[in-house]
Design a protein that fits this description.
heterodimer; A: alpha+beta; B: alpha/beta; 36 strands; about 30% helix
């Protein structure tokens, strides 16, 4: 017998679908009131199942989590998208009727709370009355304003009923290759408002009786390029949700509905409590501050973007983490600057995505993660800033661009806490930015109009650890299953042939321990004369940084190579470029005749390329830890000999050496000692006290004597936050009447 | 049938001897310095049980079969030649980058997520031994840049100067067009002719795997080159041992693809994990003969828990990109999941969630669980089993190891009871529940990933700890039938004895058989059938080379199919070995849709995205005689009750507040169809059956037994 028909016999007069005859709105209101009053989820004082029968508690948890992981492992086979299947950009979750997460599968943990926000919208907006929530319904959302990071992440929700009551939501999310924006691909750069972001589904009901509505199917097929990716990903999400529903219903059949209802609330309260314990165990109470920044260089896009959007600007995230002796965990980014006419704005929901990605890889790397942990934290995203725009029409297709950098401050703060408690093995010098994101579209090498979104950026250099170097190119912070994919696999679907993919020297940040190196890909447009190509990564600003004196990984640059003589080189078997290696001594330039552009504009409006044009993509390296002059000289030599460091940068580490007969570079120990002594003396000679430095900078601070983007950023921060303005005045001792310049 | 089958494991060499209807199991310690010594001892222990002698066995045995961990050990110990790798210029970092994921391959989910600890294994080919060749073939196999021969010679000499002792050639898109790889081989042969002492082995990637994916193809080829010599010498010395003791036929080596072959038709990579795969094969054979339907094969030993699936209807589960040690490779291997769960798994306090976790760390055999009294200080699953009363401290492992419960109590108390504020018994029960849950979750995911429900399966439990934990695992999964098979402690060797001779050949195609844009069906049947014929020919030649007759050889055609650009593929067994008409193509599409729907749910099929064939695979095989398991069927009735146990002791069980009076039996005192009611423990020299409350054990022949849930109509 179908398990659904056996378990969902609602009584004829029952209207409200919440528990005990209540509506969902009543349930969420009560839940929030009890939490506000008691500080505990649903006011729970005792964990009755865990305390009385811990074995049963673990068993139920294992069943639910196993069901979620199993659903993910099964469903990803349905997807066609390499982003989902190979890179693992999908995740499933189970939520309470009010939308609080109970458990999450493996995968992109970012969505532990974003899907919660979307479900809470469904509840608060009383979908129960209109359009109605019934067994077999399917809802879709990719609206960051309601609960998401960006519209490339498409979420599916399936309600789970037991005898007429809504007892849970199954939810799944995947990342889409194309979202039907004017520019091809899933995360367009250069969009200036929401109306250019593409296909947005705002918590829509799109299916009933376990089937998608045909009108929705037609709409999604006509709204996106490469619709079969969208269709198969949708089937993937729905199949996973239905598997989760079966798991939950079977569990209830075995354990009883009362046990289930008690368990799902207790497990959230238990996780809240566990998170608080973790904070108390791992971190030292106090206030930690650490800012980060991101460049938005659109001034070069004048003529293709509107004038008001084609400007250079800077985003800032002045992150402050407060921890008290009771294990509170409060984050505040007061002082963040204003949203802008670009793709990188975020929403409070997106911010939560970034937060949980970071915490799952640092503070709580385990499988018991749910909204209990969310309830143990607070996060202030000031209204009007890029993190919480006061204009609903702003674009957020690339919210992720600043989400990882902006949490650098959080990782640094945690590191200081770990260090204070002696958990040295937990320390890692922040996470590198996830880029370059290579995307494109146009007529592909199969002759079809399409778009593509290469995800080799899902692997970047790991930053340095307390006692050893960062590892070369591993999974990025947001997904421990990241995989850069095989060249042969990407070339089947992308009209850009790889000429080379190699470790990039100097990409890892210098330090006593070096950041892990990244790689670079040189690609040649092939089989088509019509491709728009994008870059997306940091060019002017070190968005993330090293720690304890370590340097950040290198920033990137754009090296555009058009109208090349590659065709002739291929025909005549002449040398051709396979790697750039060194921006000051480019191997691409040395091996090609072409129109070349070098600049740092790595966020730009899509750029048209023709066949045999080349495209350079550099992935980010990890950041360094500790003083470069303390790095063992032999490690510097090994870096040079294995292609991680350009020879002329040995001196930056205070190391002297030369090449010997067998070609290896070896250290001159005596000369190294001498050079390092000299460098230390130079440092001393150049040093000044903090007071002296503050004095020297005070005038600049008073007049905001910085370049235009920095001045604009400061002005916006001061305008948006009185507190920030006062802090600025007080820090620089400017007096209460100081006002930021207006232009 | 007179047959010797041997599974050489890390600790024991298992032997299963079949001699004119008699079945004998025996073990001896593995002798790593000379595997032949352990083999001879295990064989001696077997033939002496039926009063035979070595000369008779060796002279009269129709075959001697080996499953071996030799390759795995060589990888762990890094015993191999210096391999030089030739790649397409620009791709010298392919191996060091290992697709980014190389740091995580072979690690548990928890360890993969621990990026601050990420570290790749030491490489099999260091960066100085990698050289690039200027050439390029595009995705469709067109030569974009021709190979430059002088460049090849220069790079080959450079690698030899660096100390290369073997070559692997892995060029981008070589599976679409192997001409450049073949040309490189020709040039190396010219430089280092095969009749010269300086000749070196050359492995071409397109011959190791016909699949796209340059990283896994290169790692597979490198592993093959790395293991080649050590495997050749190791297996040759075993074969020589057979010759010297009077066996005149070629030795047969078990393959991880589920078949076997002579040494001259065996790649080094094909021998990795061949022992556990043989166990799955034995399960498949048992399931067929005893009519068990779908079977989950589980092997719980001291440090690991192996899971395999056998599904009725001939569906085979292969890993096409299995991870061997810490490297992903691309050889078709019978699917096997190994979890870090066993008797030696360490139980530890999870501070964050204030509960118990188990594994994946294991106390191993040295120092072993705390109760071994060999210095182990951490509590393990075996300590929990001992404290709950299931193990006899004086008669563990046939009396070979004396257990000390005081050590278990001390370890449990210190590690778990103090922080959790619970009793030793509660800690032991939590430990047991946790490990059973972990194993059950592993099985659950294996099944759900393929679209199956656990209740549709019979669980087969073998390995030293299988009978002790199977009821607990089955309860979590909702499985109500568990079979502990005969000869369960040497079950992999049993499987080796039942193998057929089999070779698998495959080719990547990327054929669109239904184009949804034009609504057209593929019609170039001659092209497709020629590829199938070529693959059959290759398999046939392999088998003919081993002395098989052409008339004995059968072929099975499989295709890896997908909707649109799905990267995951569904292996479909074709009902016919040639596709010659639109009707037959539609039938193939129908089988694909049916299998796909079964696995992922009806309605999840998506022909609107098009239908493609990625790989065509031909399994060529010769069926040989096998051991009879027909009498191992599930009993019809409730069996004959056994009233008088050897002993009654108090044991603790999950879900019971008090210790229960538990009956203890010796397996040798029981007869087939004897029924043991719960709670009970049955001890045999090779395994222990724990009959948990709610279960009944019905003995079968050869110390096999059925554990059945009494409340499920059994």
């Amino acid at each position: 017998m179908n398990i659904m028909s056996a378990t969902n016999k609602a009584t004829a007069d029952q209207k409200a679908i919440g528990w005990d005859g209540r509506t969902l709105v009543e349930m969420i209101t009560e839940s929030e009131r009890l939490f506000a009053d008691t500080g505990r989820y649903w006011g729970i004082e005792d964990l009755s199942i865990k305390d009385k029968d811990p074995i049963k508690y673990e068993k139920i948890w294992s069943r639910l989590r196993g069901g979620l992981v199993g659903a993910r492992e099964t469903a990803l086979n349905i997807s066609a998208s390499p982003i989902v299947r190979e890179i693992g950009e999908l995740c499933f979750g189970l939520y309470t009727p009010e939308g609080d997460s109970i458990s999450l599968s493996t995968g992109i943990m970012a969505h532990i709370h974003t899907m919660s926000e979307a479900l809470k919208h469904i509840v608060r907006a009383d979908y129960e009355s209109n359009p109605g929530i019934e067994d077999g319904d399917i809802f879709v959302n990719n609206d960051p304003q309601l609960g998401d990071v960006h519209n490339a992440d498409v979420q599916e929700f399936v309600p789970i009923f037991w005898e007429g009551e809504l007892i849970a939501w199954a939810a799944g999310v995947t990342h889409e290759i194309d979202v039907g924006a004017p520019q091809p691909c899933g995360m367009p750069v250069g969009t200036v408002n929401r109306y250019e972001d593409g296909f947005i589904l705002s918590c829509e009901k799109v299916g009933s009786s376990d089937r998608l509505h045909r009108d929705y199917e037609h709409r999604s097929e006509s709204a996106t390029r490469m619709p079969f990716y969208w269709v198969l990903d949708e089937k993937c999400r729905i199949a996973g949700c239905h598997m989760i529903r079966n798991t939950v219903l079977r569990l209830i059949q075995e354990e009883g509905i009362d046990t289930y209802k008690t368990f799902i609330r207790e497990v959230i309260e238990d996780t809240r409590h566990a998170f608080v314990n973790r904070i108390k165990e791992m971190l030292v109470p106090g206030v930690y501050r650490s800012p980060s920044f991101m460049d938005v260089p659109h001034a070069g896009d004048k003529g293709v973007m509107p004038d008001y959007a084609a400007v250079d600007s800077l985003m800032n995230c002045p992150l402050e983490l407060s921890i008290d002796e009771h294990g509170s965990f409060d984050i505040d980014i007061d002082g963040a600057n204003k949203w802008g006419y670009h793709s990188f704005n975020c929403t409070p929901s997106g911010i939560q995505g970034g937060l949980w990605v970071t915490l799952c890889q640092t503070l709580i790397p385990n499988d018991k993660v749910n909204d209990g942990a969310y309830l143990a934290t607070t996060f202030n995203t000031p209204y009007g800033t890029w993190s919480n725009p006061d204009n609903l029409s702003v674009s957020n297709t690339l919210s992720w661009m600043f989400l990882i950098p902006c949490f650098t401050g959080l990782v640094h703060s945690l590191n200081r806490g770990f260090c204070g408690r002696g958990y040295l093995e937990e320390i890692i010098a922040a996470y590198p930015f996830t880029g370059n994101i290579t995307q494109g579209g146009g007529i592909n090498h199969h002759g079809h109009d399409g778009s593509w979104s290469n995800f080799e950026h899902s692997c970047s250099g790991v930053s340095a650890r307390w006692a050893w170097d960062g590892e070369t190119s591993c999974a990025a912070v947001w997904n421990p299953e990241g995989d850069m994919g095989d060249v042969e696999a990407w070339e089947i679907i992308e009209p850009a042939l790889y000429l080379g993919r190699n470790i990039r020297p100097n990409s890892g940040g210098f330090g006593k321990f070096r950041g892990g190196s990244a790689f670079e890909s040189v690609r040649m447009v092939y089989g088509t004369d019509r491709q728009l190509l994008y870059h997306a990564r940091d060019g002017h600003v070190h968005q993330c940084s090293g720690i304890f004196g370590g340097y950040p990984g290198s920033t990137g640059y754009r090296h555009t190579i058009k109208n090349t003589d590659m065709k002739e080189r291929i025909e005549k078997r002449l040398p051709y470029p396979v790697q750039d290696v060194d921006s000051e001594n480019s191997q691409i330039s040395a091996n090609i005749n072409a129109d070349e552009t070098f600049d740092r504009r790595l966020y730009h409006y899509p750029d048209p390329h023709g066949e045999y044009d080349l495209y350079l993509s550099q992935i980010c390296g990890g950041h360094g830890l500790g003083d470069v002059l303390e790095r063992r000289a032999e490690m510097v030599a090994e870096d040079i000999n294995t292609g991680h460091l350009l020879e002329r940068y040995a001196g930056s580490h205070g190391v002297v050496g030369s090449r010997v007969e067998d070609g290896d570079w070896t250290v001159d120990a005596t000369a190294t000692d001498t050079l390092r002594d000299e460098k230390r003396q130079q440092r001393l000679a150049q040093s000044q006290s903090v007071e002296e430095w503050m004095d020297s900078q005070r005038d600049r601070a008073a007049s905001l004597d910085y370049n235009v983007p920095v001045r604009k950023m400061h002005r916006e921060s001061c305008e948006l936050s009185e507190k920030w303005l006062n802090n600025y005045r007080s820090f620089w001792n400017l007096g209460d009447d100081w006002q930021p310049p207006t232009a | 049938m007179k047959r010797v089958s041997v599974d050489i494991g890390g600790t024991f060499t298992d032997c299963f001897l079949v001699w004119d209807g008699q079945y004998v199991e025996a073990k001896a310690l593995t002798t790593h310095h000379n595997l032949a010594l352990g083999f001879n001892q295990a064989l001696k222990n077997a033939y002496e049980k039926i009063d035979l002698d070595l000369e008779t066995v060796m002279a009269e045995a129709d075959s001697v079969r080996y499953a071996t961990t030799l390759g795995t050990n060589a990888l762990i110990e890094r015993k191999g030649p210096r391999v030089g790798l030739l790649v397409t210029a620009g791709f010298e970092s392919t191996l060091p980058l290992s697709r980014g994921r190389g740091y995580a391959d072979g690690l548990s989910e928890r360890m993969q997520a621990d990026l601050p600890m990420a570290k790749r294994p030491d490489p099999l080919v260091p960066i100085p031994l990698i050289a690039g060749l200027r050439e390029r073939i595009d995705t469709n196999g067109n030569v974009l840049m021709k190979l430059i021969q002088d460049d090849v010679r220069r790079q080959v000499r450079k690698l030899v100067d660096q100390g290369a002792q073997a070559f692997v050639v892995c060029l981008v898109n070589a599976v679409s067009n192997p001409s450049h790889e073949l040309l490189v081989e020709e040039i190396i042969r010219e430089e280092y002719p095969s009749h010269m002492l300086g000749s070196m082995p050359i492995i071409l990637s397109h011959l190791v795997s016909g699949r796209k994916g340059e990283y896994v193809r290169s790692s597979s080829s490198i592993m093959d080159a790395f293991l080649h010599q050590v495997m050749y010498h190791g297996l040759s010395s075993l074969e020589l041992n057979l010759r010297e003791t009077g066996h005149k036929r070629p030795m047969l080596v078990i393959h991880n693809s589920g078949g076997m072959a002579q040494l001259n038709s065996t790649d080094a990579l094909q021998t990795i994990h061949s022992g556990p795969v043989a166990g799955i094969h034995a399960s498949e054979h048992l399931a067929e003969e005893a009519d068990l339907g779908n079977v989950i094969c589980t092997d719980m030993g001291g440090t690991s828990f192996d899971i395999g699936l056998v599904v009725s209807g001939g569906v085979k589960f292969y890993d096409f990109n299995p991870v061997i040690e810490r490297w992903m490779v691309c050889v078709p291997m019978v699917h096997l999941l190994t979890l870090g769960a066993g008797g030696g798994s360490i139980a530890w306090y999870d501070r964050m969630h204030h509960t118990v976790q188990t594994g994946p760390e294991s106390a191993g055999s040295d120092p072993g669980p705390a109760c071994y009294d060999k210095g182990g200080m951490q509590p393990t699953v075996s300590d929990a089993d001992l404290l709950l009363g299931y193990l006899d401290p004086d008669n563990y492992a046939g009396g070979a190891i004396k257990l000390n419960p005081r050590r278990s109590k001390f370890a449990m108390d210190e590690a778990l009871c103090e922080p959790l504020d619970i009793s030793v018994t509660e800690a032991a029960l939590l430990t047991r529940q946790k490990v059973d849950n972990n194993m059950a979750n592993g099985i659950f995911q294996e099944l759900r990933t393929r679209g199956y429900e656990p209740r549709q399966f019979t669980m087969l439990a073998y390995g030293g700890n299988g009978g002790l934990h199977c009821c607990g695992i089955a309860e979590v999964l909702g499985i109500d039938k568990v079979f502990v098979p005969p000869f369960s402690s040497v079950f992999s060797a049993v499987g080796a004895g039942n193998m057929h001779q089999l070779h698998i050949h495959e080719k990547s195609l990327y054929l669109t058989i239904y184009d949804s844009n034009t609504s057209k069906l593929f019609d170039d049947f001659d092209h497709l059938n020629q590829i199938i014929a070529d693959l059959e020919e290759a398999g046939k030649n392999d088998l003919l080379r081993q002395g098989m007759k052409a008339g004995q050889i059968k072929h099975r055609l499989e295709m890896d199919m997908r909707y649109g650009n799905q990267l995951a593929q569904t292996a479909v067994v074709s009902e016919v070995n040639r596709i010659e008409s639109r009707k037959e193509l539609l039938r193939l599409i129908g089988v694909f849709a049916r299998d796909y729907g079964k696995r992922f749910g009806e309605g999840s099929q998506a022909p609107e995205a098009g239908i493609r064939v990625n790989t065509v695979r031909v399994a060529s095989y010769v069926e040989l005689d096998t051991v009879n398991f027909g009498h191992m069927r599930k009993p019809e009735g409730a069996g004959n009750p056994v009233k008088k146990p050897k002993d009654i002791r108090k044991c603790w069980f999950v879900g019971h507040k008090e210790a229960l009076d538990t009956a203890f039996y010796q397996a040798e005192d029981l007869k087939p169809n004897d029924a043991i009611e719960a709670p009970a423990v049955v001890v045999s020299p090779s395994t222990t059956f724990l009959v948990q409350p709610g279960w009944r054990l019905i003995m079968n022949e050869q110390n096999a037994g059925w554990l059945l849930r009494v409340d499920q109509g059994n």
